[in-house]
């Protein structure tokens, strides 16, 4: 557990010490958090870099935040949260738990892959589309405040 906290602290220190304006760093953190909420594992890094060029935000902040928010420890929780939000918006009434969703994904094979994908994808991506802007804006606001505070001390 100590290694995890040390890793997290080191990444946050790297973000705070980036040589850029607090607004550009915080915008990078917001974009990174936004991208991390989408279940596009494997493409989050590339999508984050592309958006950092489009919006002219700090690329290092985008990449590090994407890595911090969506990693193997948090990925299943984030995607489950996305799924549950999408499910509520669509009015689905299922009793899918995190364990049941993991089992469904584990039991999928080439023959039933598209059936499993169809039942999960709609609420998952709708939930992600709702949660991503909320998380991105919250990450921007929090990081802007923290970066501005810590840059004054350095």
Give structural notes.
The protein has helices at 2-16, 22-36, 44-55, 59-69, 75-90, 98-107, 113-153. The protein has 154 residues and is mainly α. The protein has one domain. Helix 2 packs antiparallel against helix 3 (44-55). It is elongated. The model has no long low-confidence stretch (mean pLDDT 84).
Structural class comes to mainly alpha
- What is the overall number of helices? 7
Secondary-structure element string: HHHHHHH
Tell me, what's the shape?
A: elongated
Please outline the major beta sheet: none
Give the CA-CA distance, first to last residue: 28 Å
Secondary structure blueprint with pairings:
Elements: H1 2-16, H2 22-36, H3 44-55, H4 59-69, H5 75-90, H6 98-107, H7 113-153
Summarize the structure.
This protein is mainly alpha-helical and 154 residues long. 78% of the residues lie in helices and 0% in strands. The protein has one domain.
Name a few traits of the molecule.
single chain; mainly alpha; 154 residues
